DNA sequence: CTCTTGACGCCAT
DNA sequence: GATGGCGCCAAGA
């Protein structure tokens, strides 16, 4: 039966991913792959990147999403890079050379990810 | 339909 | 730490 307008998988995924990104607390960072995993879409890091690249969703803390190695995903020197670094620093995140510092940024971005930052 | 591109990730060298 | 190759998936040409 009818009923439900069968939501496209793509749209559902988008919604889940956006929710996962919003769930990242201020002052913290997460990896694309980690976001995908939290959204229930393991291995879809690229999908996360693609959705963020669309740039919609106002208020979305996209700047808290980094590569798995703790590096900013934009090419150094680009606008996106600069803006992301500024935003992160504005939240108290230590960024050096386009890389987030904090012991490991995310050795595996799995367990220590949601650890509260010392202050 | 095929081919390329991309805000990625992991592993080997 | 830097580079290169392969995997993955969606969108555009």
Spatial gap, N to C terminus: 54 Å
Strand order of the largest sheet: 1-2
Number of domains as seen in the coordinates: 1
CATH class: Mainly Alpha
Q: What's the shape?
A: elongated
* CATH structural architecture: Orthogonal Bundle
- Specify the biggest β-sheet: 2 strands, parallel
What is the CATH T-level topology?
Arc Repressor Mutant, subunit A
Work out the number of β strands: 4
CATH superfamily: Winged helix-like DNA-binding domain superfamily/Winged helix DNA-binding domain
Helix share of residues? 25-40%
Report the total helices: 4
Could you name the key traits of this structure?
Arc Repressor Mutant, subunit A; two-stranded antiparallel sheet; 7% strand; 4 helices; mainly alpha; 36% helix; elongated
Description of the molecule:
The protein is mostly helical and 119 residues long. The chain has one domain (9-107): Winged helix-like DNA-binding domain superfamily/Winged helix DNA-binding domain (Arc Repressor Mutant, subunit A), CATH 1.10.10.10. Helices cover 36% and strands 7% of the residues. The strands form two sheets. Strands 1-2 form a two-stranded parallel sheet. Strands 3-4 form a two-stranded antiparallel ribbon. Strand 3 (95-96) and strand 4 (99-100) form a beta hairpin. Helix 2 (32-38) packs across helix 3 (45-54). The mean pLDDT is 85. InterPro entries: ATL_DNA_repair, MethylDNA_cys_MeTrfase_DNA-bd, MethylDNA_cys_MeTrfase_DNAb, WH-like_DNA-bd_sf. One of its GO terms (biological process) is DNA repair.
């Amino acid at each position: 039966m009818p009923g439900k307008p069968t939501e496209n998988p793509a749209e559902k995924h988008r919604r889940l991913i956006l929710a996962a990104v919003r769930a990242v607390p201020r002052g913290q960072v997460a990896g694309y792959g980690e976001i995908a995993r939290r959204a229930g879409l393991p291995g879809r890091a690229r999908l996360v990147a693609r959705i963020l690249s669309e740039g919609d969703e106002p208020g979305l803390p996209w700047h808290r999403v980094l590569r798995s190695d703790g590096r900013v995903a934009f090419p150094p020197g680009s606008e996106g890079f600069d803006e992301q670094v500024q935003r992160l620093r504005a939240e108290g995140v230590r960024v050096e050379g386009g890389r987030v510092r904090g012991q490991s940024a995310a050795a595996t971005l799995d367990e220590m990810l949601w650890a509260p930052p010392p202050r």
